[in-house]
Amino acid sequence: MQYTSTISRNILIEDLINNYSFSVRYLMEKGIRCIRCGEPIWGTLEEAAKEKDFDDEAIDTFVKEMNDLAGKMEVEKR
Is 76 helix (H, G, I), strand (E, B) or coil? Predict the structure, then answer.
């Protein structure tokens, strides 16, 4: 799988899990379930996180950490 776009707080959950398979586990560890995890969530990463009472700082951390993970996966593929 090729990681082609940057993860942002506005990425749709569906796009996130389809394009970044590691995000399913990451979101579960943070307490944000997603479509594949059994809890149907639609909307953006930011909306899903705010529904679980995460603040803007936490959401920024999620975005940074997932972009870091995506970058590491891309390097490992080379």
Answer: helix
